[in-house]
Amino acid sequence: MTTRLLLISDTHIPGRSRRLPDAVLREADAADLIVHAGDWVAASVLDDLRQHGDVLGVYGNNDGEDLRAVLPEVARREVEGVRIAVVHETGQKQRREERMDVAYPDADLLVFGHSHIPWDTTTRRGMRLLNPGSPTDRRRQPHHTLMTLELADGGIRSARLHSI
C-alpha cells in the first residue's frame, strides 16, 4: 500500500493570494493526506482543504486565535509506519539537523514551514526534514512551490518538489 501526501505551508491567504492555487487543489484531491505546516492566516483555508481530504496541520506565527483554537503547535501522526511530526518553525538553518534530532527524537519525518524556502535534508540519525516552500508567496524564490510525498513499507518512497 502506498499513501500519497501533499505538503504545503505559508499560504498567507488573503494577504498573498485570494485563494489556494488550482495546482494545490488538484494535488489535494489526489492526496490521501494533506499536510499544512502553518501560516494559513484565514481559517477558511482549513475549511477549504478539508473539503478536499484529510488534513494534518499546525498553526504558525501569523495565525490568529481562531486557528490556534483548533490546531496544535506540533502535530503528529503515523502513516504507513512513518512517524510524522509537523511544526511551523525550526529556527535558523545553521545546525537545524542537529537541533531537530534532539527536539523530535521519535519522528522519522519532520515537515516545517516559516521560511518559504524549500528544504530537503536528512539528519544524522536518519530523520527527513522537508519544507515545501509556499504555493502563494515565493519571496526570493524563483517559483511558488509545494511537495508531494509517497510513503510505503515503513519509509519514504519518493519526495518531489513541484514548482507552480
Topology of helices and strands:
Elements: E1 2-8, H1 22-30, E2 33-36, H2 43-50, E3 55-57, H3 65-68, E4 74-79, E5 82-87, H4 96-103, E6 109-111, E7 119-122, E8 128-131, E9 145-152, E10 155-163
Task: Describe the structure concisely.
The chain has 164 residues and is an alpha/beta fold.
Describe this structure in words.
There is one protein chain. This protein has 4 helices and 10 strands. It has one domain (2-163): Purple Acid Phosphatase, chain A, domain 2, CATH 3.60.21. The protein has helices spanning 22-30, 43-50, 65-68, 96-103, and strands at residues 2-8, 33-36, 55-57, 74-79, 82-87, 109-111, 119-122, 128-131, 145-152, 155-163. The chain has a 5-stranded mixed sheet, covered by helices on one side. A 5-stranded mixed sheet has the order 4-5-6-8-7, with no helix packed on it. The chain is an alpha/beta fold. Its EC number is 3.1.4.-. Its cofactor is a divalent metal cation. Keywords: Metal-binding. Pfam families: Metallophos_2. This is Phosphoesterase.
The CATH class: Alpha Beta
So how many helices? 4
Give the full name of the CATH homologous superfamily.
Answer: Metallo-dependent phosphatases
Helical percentage: 10-25%
How many runs of DSSP E, i.e. beta strands? 10
Instruction: List the uncertain runs.
Output: none
User: Remind me, CATH topology?
Assistant: Purple Acid Phosphatase, chain A, domain 2
**What Rg, in angstroms, do the CA atoms define?**
14 Å
User: What best-fitting shape do the alpha-carbon axes yield?
Assistant: globular
Strand content: 25-35%
User: How many domains is the backbone divided into?
Assistant: 1
Overall pLDDT confidence = 97
Protein name: Phosphoesterase
Keywords: Metal-binding
Family: Belongs to the metallophosphoesterase superfamily. YfcE family.
Pfam families: Metallophos_2 (PF12850)
